[in-house]
Specification:
CATH architecture of the largest domain: Roll
Organism: Sphingobacterium wenxiniae
Pfam families: Bact_transglu_N, Transglut_core
Keywords: Hydrolase, Protease
Radius of gyration: 20 Å
Number of strands: 15
GO biological process, one term: proteolysis
Distance between the termini: 27 Å
Domain Transglutaminase-like: 171-237
Number of helices: 7
Structural class: alpha+beta
C-alpha cells in the first residue's frame, strides 16, 4: 500500500474585483477498497459554503458561490490518501464466454454510456488498426493491453501541440499529444470493439524513475474485463494502473470530470496558476512555498464562463 500527500492549488487573479463566482469542483478522491482517503481538506477564498452531491457516475461533486468581491480566487485541496494495488485478471475464462459477456453489456444501463462510439472521420484507418473481428480471437484483457501499447508506441508525448478543442480525428492525424489525448484515443479503440471504457481523472505519483504526467493532474482509462471488473490502463506510460495512480473521478470523457469549472461577474481579464505538489509515505502534506515539485500554468487569458471551462480542460492536459 502506498501513501501520498497531495496539494492541488488553483488560483485565479483578476485585474479588477469580481463577484458572484459560482463554481463546480471535482476534487474529491474516489473511496473504495483500493483507495482510502485518510484526510482531505478544501480551502477556498472567503470560505464559502460547499454543497456536495453524487453524480450519475458515482463521483462526489462540490458546488459553491463566492458572493463577496475579490481580486483572487484560490482553491486549495490538501489530500492524504492510501492506495492499494489490485490483483490482475487471471483471464482463465474462455475467449468465447468473455466476448459473450461483453456483448451482453450493450443492454446494461450501467455500461451503455461507456460503449457509445463517437463520430470519427478516419474510420477506415481506425478499423485497419482495430480489426474488430480479428481481435475477438483474443480475450478482452489481451486486446485492451494491445491497444494501450499501440497508443504508447505510435503517439508522441508532446506538450502544447494540442488544445482542449483538438478533436479525436486531429489527434489521430497528429499522432501526438498529452495524457488527455492518449486516453481519448484508447477510449475510441476499445469502444470500437465493444469493450466498455471510461475516462479517469486523477494524479500519478511515482516515487522514483519519473513517469509522464507527474506533477500535474493526469488522465487514463479504465476498461471492463469479464469476471474481474474495471481495469486501469495508462497509455501515456504503457502500464496497468496500480498503487501510484490516485483516482479523482470517472466519466465518458474529460467533460464529465473537469476538476474546476464555473462563471463569475466582472472583468474578463485574469491570470491562472495551477500547482500540484506531491510528497510520499509519511512526509507531511507539503506547503505551497516549500515544494520544488510544482507545475505552474501562468498565461494571461481573456473570457468568462466558457473560457474558464476551456482553461480547466487545458489544465488537465499538462
Amino acid at each position: 500500500m502506498a501513501k501520498f500527500n497531495i496539494q492541488h492549488i488553483t488560483t485565479y487573479t483578476y485585474d479588477e474585483p469580481v463577484y458572484d463566482s459560482a463554481n463546480q469542483i471535482m476534487l474529491y478522491p474516489i473511496k473504495d477498497a483500493y483507495q482510502e482517503v485518510v484526510s482531505h481538506r478544501i480551502a477556498i477564498t472567503n470560505d464559502p459554503l460547499i454543497e456536495t452531491y453524487t453524480d450519475y457516475y458515482g463521483n462526489q461533486v462540490g458546488t459553491f458561490t463566492n458572493y463577496e468581491s475579490h481580486n483572487e480566487l484560490n482553491i486549495s485541496s490538501s489530500l492524504e490518501v492510501q492506495v492499494k494495488s489490485k490483483l490482475l485478471p487471471d483471464d482463465k475464462l474462455s475467449v468465447e464466454k468473455q466476448w459473450e459477456i461483453i456483448d451482453g453489456l450493450q443492454y446494461d444501463m450501467s455500461y451503455i454510456n461507456f460503449l457509445k462510439k463517437e463520430y470519427f472521420d478516419a474510420e477506415d484507418e481506425l478499423l485497419a488498426v482495430v480489426l474488430p473481428e480479428e481481435r475477438r480471437k483474443s480475450t478482452p484483457y489481451e486486446v485492451a493491453q494491445y491497444f494501450c501499447h499501440y497508443v504508447f508506441e505510435n503517439f508522441k508525448y508532446i506538450k502544447g501541440i494540442t488544445s482542449v478543442e483538438t478533436t479525436v480525428d486531429e489527434i489521430w492525424k497528429l499522432k501526438s499529444g498529452v495524457c488527455q489525448d492518449f486516453a481519448h484515443i484508447l477510449l475510441v479503440m476499445l469502444r470500437r470493439v465493444g469493450i466498455p471504457a471510461r475516462y479517469v481523472s486523477g494524479y500519478i505519483c511515482p516515487n522514483q524513475n519519473g513517469m509522464r504526467g507527474e506533477g500535474a493532474t493526469h488522465a487514463w482509462v479504465e476498461t471492463f474485463i469479464p469476471d474481474y471488473g474495471w481495469l486501469g490502463l495508462d497509455p501515456t506510460n504503457n502500464c496497468i494502473v496500480q498503487s501510484n495512480h490516485v483516482r479523482l473521478a470517472v466519466g465518458r470523457n474529460f467533460v464529465d470530470v473537469s476538476p474546476v469549472k464555473g462563471t463569475y461577474k466582472g472583468t474578463a481579464h485574469h491570470k491562472l496558476e495551477v500547482k500540484v505538489i506531491i510528497s510520499y509515505e509519511n512526509d507531511p502534506i507539503p506547503q505551497e512555498n516549500e515544494s520544488k515539485e510544482a507545475l505552474i500554468v501562468n498565461p494571461q487569458f481573456e473570457g468568462n464562463s466558457y473560457q474558464r471551462f476551456k482553461e480547466m480542460q487545458e489544465m488537465q492536459q499538462q
